[in-house]
Amino acid sequence: MNIRNRLLLLPFLLLSHNLAAASEKIVGIGIAKNDHVYVWFADGKVTSGTTSNFEKYRHAYSYSLPPGKTPNDIVAISIAGSNNHVYAWYKDGYVSSGTSDDLDKYRAPYKFTLPVKKTAKNIVGIGIAGSDDHVYAWYDDGKWSSGTTDDLDNYVGLSSYNLLSGQTAADLVEIDIAKSNDRVYVWYRNGIVSTGSSNDLSHHRSYGYVPSQVLYRWWGPAAPNLKAGPVSFSEMVVSDKGPDILTQGATAEPHSTISNRTELELKNEPIDSANLSQSPNWSEPRFTSDTGGSRDPMVAVGNQYLITSDTSSIAFYDKQGKPLPAENGIPTRMSSNAFFEGFLAETNADGSFNESNINHYLGFPKPCDSPDYPQTSSGKRFCIDSFYDTRVSFDATSKRFFIISNSRHPLWAAAKYEAEDSYGTCGVYTNSSGVNVGTDDYCDLVRRYIAFAVSKTEDPRDGFHQYMITESNNRDFPWMSVNGNAFIIANKGSESIVGPVASVFSVNGVKSGDQHPPYFRYYVQDLGGVSLAIPPVHYRNAAGLSFLLAGSDTHIDIFAFRQATDPWTGPTLLKTSANLSERIDFYNAVYRSGLLYLVGNKAEENAGAATRYSVRLVRVPIEQPSASSIKASTSASKGFLDVRFGKRNYADPQDSRISYEKPALAVNKRGDMLFAYGRYPFSPADLLKPQARFTYWFGNEAKQRPSHLLQEGSAFNSVTIVSALDYTTAVVDPSDDLTFWMAVPYSVGTGYKTVIGKVIP
Fold first, then answer.
1. Beta strands in 330-477 (DSSP E)
2. Strands 585-592 and 537-538
3. How far apart are CA 312 and CA 391, in angstroms?
4. What strands, in cross-sheet order, belong to the sheet with 729-732?
5. How far apart are CA 661 and CA 678, in angstroms?
6. Is 234 a residue whose pLDDT tops 60?
7. Nearest 10 degrees: Cα torsion 507, 511, 512, 514
8. pLDDT tens across 640-662, in order?
């Protein structure tokens, strides 16, 4: 029976869902009797979903093949409508019958025949009709035939077929037939699926599909044991730029707005410390990061090496602060775009089609660089073009470096700009002249994707397994934490309630380069309406709980989950809360030895556009009354603290009032705390340069030591200034779990530099 006139009408879909593995790894697609779509991959996994969401119904699970066969031997797979038997055809001219996870369960491989002058290598797709189990085969020369599983032209000889305009047989991933109505589906490598009939494969509708929950690439030296595509490196572009131009137009993190405080309140405000004992001094190395500096620097400290980052650059160092020499052609200082460029490149290093290009899978009705879209500042219209907000971390348990970065195109949701401008539209894009333009024409096309990488070893030059999540998430400020087998991805910005609040990947999966790494997600409804929750740093807590923290006025919600038994399924969230005397906007959090540490700023006074901040520390003891509950305590006897410090250092003139901004906190195994922050003049008695400073608090002392200068800026400021720091970083050295490292920006004219410092107690 010919199905050329039985067509499928589907509504157009704009997709940004969680889906299966990259099309270059797909070896077969079959549609079952209930129209569920099964997809088999070259890594030995199979998923179940829809024509556009390959993992909607079931995550990746393993399948077996006949003896002597490998996934790369498969040329096509289809499913019979009468009994849901799965048929797999192989390069050697044999076909087997079985189930989705056992391809020869019902029948061992038996020979099949093809039309004259055709071989199995000419097959580009095979589908089985639902109405009569007739088998349709399509070939690479534009011909098709119909027959049985072992005689592919038994019913209809070779006839011609048409593809989607602009596509060739080389662009096909697979073809199959829906069993409910005998309609033909065709998947292409560029992220498009079309519907039609046996001889006209795009007769009616085409729409976007995304082939992967995460796209995978290998970055690093040649790794013959990895099933990864070729690697190319762009010329490194690292500029010593000023303020972070990549976050232009973004709204600032919220702070409390207060009226000017009374003189009595200011007089009683605590300074750095009444404890006049000196803080431990910084020791070598102390150096300026090669990444150039920005207002959001980070340092990740391993046992032998360091990685530093700013919003758009990465650099590798030894622990003496010296840049690592390149090995095997691997750069050790690069832009974030260069590091993650494999997800944007059209071709691989050998010129082959790059299946991992995220721009093929945006779910747009037209290619992202279509001239029907406006030309923008990127020069690539609405294609993803840049990586920014880059963060780095080291996990002492897995002994791996983790790197995370956000990506974007020039189109934003208008809500991002509400605090600054009123566009009266749903979207905003930056045009080719650098001007923000409001629009109502492209509201569904806003895309933001998170990419992350995990080092193969402790030496970053040995390479990274790179992943890109294919679900768009319009939240800003990506954040991460690692605890045991949980690699937690969240965001410090809450611009959108669409998308997950947190995604938790299996560390075991990503560190080994699993192309289907298990993961689970928590959404707003899982957290009782909370749309923003930050994961704290977890120190050597692999067997214990992982936390997510959310603040609302004086109320802190604390969520926790155990290590997952099934890495695809999120454990039930435990919840408690703590009520504070006043609001805290925290930037950094740590969980260690049963205590949650939250550090942020407290707004002390205003002067026009400027606000002066002190450092605020809240420490909350966490108890576990049972396996299914947690409890936050505000008892000082159990370790609760809510303190602030700042205003000035004891050595500053007594009438100085100085702003202590964007503090970071680290806690070592002894319970010592190190605070790193930027210090800026607010109303100084004499000229004061902006500074990068830190404060030490010994775990056995009741108060912090006075602040200590790490690096001074290059210009005096005699008037009130407003800093624009995003954050600072403080971490503990994993080699002794005592020594502290920090990355702090300091002002240089109108821009920033980053100083990396080390403090040994």
1. 333-335, 386-395, 400-408, 411-413, 427-430, 436-439, 448-455, 464-469
2. parallel
3. 9
4. 282-288, 751-759, 740-748, 729-732
5. 5
6. no
7. 60
8. 999 999 988 888 887 888 899 99
